[in-house]
Amino acid sequence: MAFIFISFLSFAQVQRIVAPKQVDSTGHQPAINDGRNDKIGRKQMMRELELSKDQRSKLKEIRQSNKVKKDEISNDDKLTTEQKDAKLRELQREQAQSTMTILNDEQKAKIKTMRQEMRRKRQQNQNN
């Protein structure tokens, strides 16, 4: 439940730009993930959750703390790509847990609804 929320809230800073294929199987050119969509989604989600000033402050602290940890993992030359990915996923899970403790029950319900909607849209896009 919190994985999507965290994706938007914290790892919008993670910008893995993948070289796009010229044309996909449907004849469309895939979009490049430059981080802008994640940032827009995070801001929209924060507005819809109607976070208090205190909650926004706590979330910012969590994001900043995890950004430092993320950078350390990403820059660790001793780790393989697979190890880095595993550590980053674990960091996301930890951040999701921390974030959920800040939210009230109504906000958690909103996140669940938004997450279901994002899944539905993603499935529609995959089917098109």
Describe the structure.
With 128 residues, this protein is mainly α. It has one domain. The protein contains 5 helices and no strands.
Question: Which keywords apply here?
Answer:
128 residues; mainly alpha; 70% helix
Q: In what range is the share of β-strand residues?
A: under 5%
Tell me the count of domains: 1
Give the number of helices: 5
Output mean pLDDT. Answer: 77
Number of strands: 0
SSE order: HHHHH
Please sum up the structure shown.
The chain is mainly α and 128 residues long.
Spell out the blueprint of helices and strands.
Blueprint: H1 2-9, H2 36-49, H3 53-74, H4 81-102, H5 105-127
Helix pairs in contact: 1-2, 1-4, 3-4
